[in-house]
Automatic annotation (TrEMBL):
Secreted tripeptidyl-peptidase which degrades proteins at acidic pHs and is involved in virulence. It comes from Lentinus tigrinus ALCF2SS1-6. Its main location: secreted. This is tripeptidyl-peptidase II. It is found in: Secreted, Extracellular space.
Length: 540
């Protein structure tokens, strides 16, 4: 046996409770080594890079699976090991690169030379069974990627706070070209239309879908959506709604008291900004046993679909140090699979400035995940009519993922200008984020029949996702493929189609964080959308 993964200590947010009961059943998964991840990455870049002969020729489900399916010898070797230990495993992903099985703690300890214990998340009181180290047979190195969940300590998600505004302002004039002054203190769909030039005309292509991720029993309320549209998008039909997909026991209770701030925000700003684009709310329930709050289950469910949404927005995330490199890489590669098939994946960058997903004490900067994954688009936040960086907008440099070539020039320019500021507090060679940004403060939503304001990059991601979904609608109507993985486009021909934000910063860790400046920066990325320029840049 050889030690395969190990953690030096229990993460700060958790406390060791004691040994796990030997009879407790563990749901474990084994990730097998993919046969050709480098080949898939090349294929992704080919179909996503403007000017490449293969641009827009997205892969089929089967083509993607051929890259990620493990070699047969790997399957045989791992299955033989499990069988020797009287373990029956089942295939747990479309390409067969994941296997799953359930065994008691006592058996898991002997199988993996592990010490599975109970750990409590101090703030929430939730417990999980994990081990700080485990081993696998030496002859499975190179065949078995990792066992999960073992050394992952994912904190429970937090949603944004809902603030009742001092008084409700009347809806602004939808036909005004100038940005109404009220948008400085209350952001509405009309503000975004005026600020970014987002059209109000209805999308026409029914196959063009916009997916919204839902977690932690955050339910999107249809009555609240009706109220929201009635006041803030009266030009849309009051019956405009969304469809529902559930997994892991997910649901979407319509009891007005169960309405979720995050779910309502996300759906109101996709339905309410991406006019007429079919919207699907993906509710991931609490029965996830994937160790990452349902992230793995959601992406594998989408990979398994024959027609996944063309855009996916997610307003949740982790601090990168909470996840072992193995599961971070595996999730990132799963996003690459969906991107290669033509889905634009957008994630909120986080709300702790340089201190991570939420504001916290730190000495070195804390990157967030999945924003550090190079195969998706990370969205930061701005504020104000003359846009400036929102101070909470998370950004920085991954300590797991290296810098992709598509952003090398933009990041190098920024780092040269930055000089020695914050030296030693971040990884200069890491994947830099966010990529883009949008309004994220004083955003008006309806919750349990009340109007109020929310803030966070969780506002920004659905707003930018709506812009991409509207562009995809026009592309589909013109017989063209969807935009798919956005970053190679954004950092090349798309960069000049964005509003550059050059002021503000994202403080944290007892520093001023990173300053925004001309060009790309790790607070607002390349900037906010200019719809007319983006239309031209995508060839419409």
């Amino acid at each position: 046996m050889q030690v395969h993964e190990t953690r030096a200590q229990v993460p700060n947010a958790f406390a060791l409770k004691g040994p796990a009961s030997p009879d407790t059943m563990l749901d474990l998964r084994v990730a097998l080594v993919n046969s050709d991840i480098a080949g898939l990455e090349k294929a992704l870049m080919d179909v996503s890079t403007p000017g490449n002969a293969l641009y827009g020729q997205h892969l089929t489900k089967e083509e993607v699976e051929s890259f990620v399916a493990p070699k047969q010898e790997s399957v045989d070797a791992v299955m033989a090991w499990l069988k020797e230990n009287d373990i029956e495993a089942t295939k747990a992903s479309p390409a067969g690169d994941w296997l799953s099985f359930s065994i008691p703690v006592s058996k898991a300890n002997s199988l993996l030379d592990a010490d599975f214990s109970e750990f409590t998340h101090i703030d929430s009181g939730t417990t999980s069974i994990r081990t700080l180290t485990y081993s696998i047979p030496a002859d499975l190195k190179g065949q078995l990627d990792f066992v999960h969940p073992t050394t992952v300590f994912a904190k429970p998600f937090n949603g944004p706070k809902f603030v009742t505004p001092p008084k409700i302002k009347p809806a602004v004039n939808l036909t005004s070209d100038a940005v109404p002054a009220s948008c400085a203190s209350t952001v509405t769909p009309a503000c975004l239309q005026a600020l970014y030039g987002i059209p109000t005309t209805l999308a026409t292509v029914k196959s063009n879908q916009l997916g919204v991720s839902g977690f932690i029993d955050q339910f999107a309320n249809q009555a609240d959506l009706r109220t929201f549209l009635g006041r803030l998008r009266p030009d849309l039909s009051s019956t405009t709604t969304f469809s529902l997909v559930t997994l892991d026991g997910g649901q979407n209770s319509q009891n007005i008291n169960d309405a979720g701030i995050e779910a309502n925000l996300d759906v109101q700003y996709t339905v309410g900004v991406a006019s007429g684009v079919p919207n699907v709310f993906i509710s991931v329930g609490d029965n996830n046993r994937d160790g990452v709050n349902g992230f793995l289950d959601e992406i594998q469910a989408l990979i398994a679909e024959s027609n996944p949404p063309q855009v996916l927005t997610t307003s949740y995330g982790f601090d990168e140090p909470d996840l072992p490199t193995s599961i971070a890489n595996s999730l990132c590669n799963a996003y690459m699979q969906l991107g290669a098939r033509g889905t634009s994946i957008l994630f909120a960058s986080g709300d702790g400035g340089v201190s991570g997903s939420q504001s916290q004490r730190c000495t070195t900067f804390i990157p967030t995940f999945p924003s550090g994954c190079p195969f998706l688009t990370s969205v930061g936040a701005t504020t104000g009519i003359t846009e400036t960086a929102a101070s909470f907008s998370s950004g920085g440099f991954s300590a797991i993922f290296s810098q992709p070539s598509y952003q090398a020039s933009a990041v190098s320019t920024y780092l040269t200008a930055l000089g020695n500021t914050n030296s030693g507090k971040f990884t200069r060679t890491g994947r830099a984020f966010p990529d883009i940004s949008a309004q994220g403060e004083n955003v008006e939503i309806v919750l349990s029949n009340q109007f109020g304001l929310v803030a966070g990059t969780s506002c920004s991601s659905p707003i930018f996702a709506s812009v991409i979904a509207l562009l995809n609608d026009e592309l589909a109507a013109a017989g063209k493929p969807p935009l798919g993985f956005l970053n190679p486009f954004l950092y090349s021909t798309g960069a000049s189609a964005l509003n550059d934000v050059t002021t503000g910063s994202n403080p944290g860790c007892n520093t001023n964080g990173f300053p925004a400046r001309a060009g790309w920066d790790p607070v607002t990325g390349l900037g906010t959308p200019n719809f007319a320029k983006l239309r031209t840049a995508v060839g419409l």
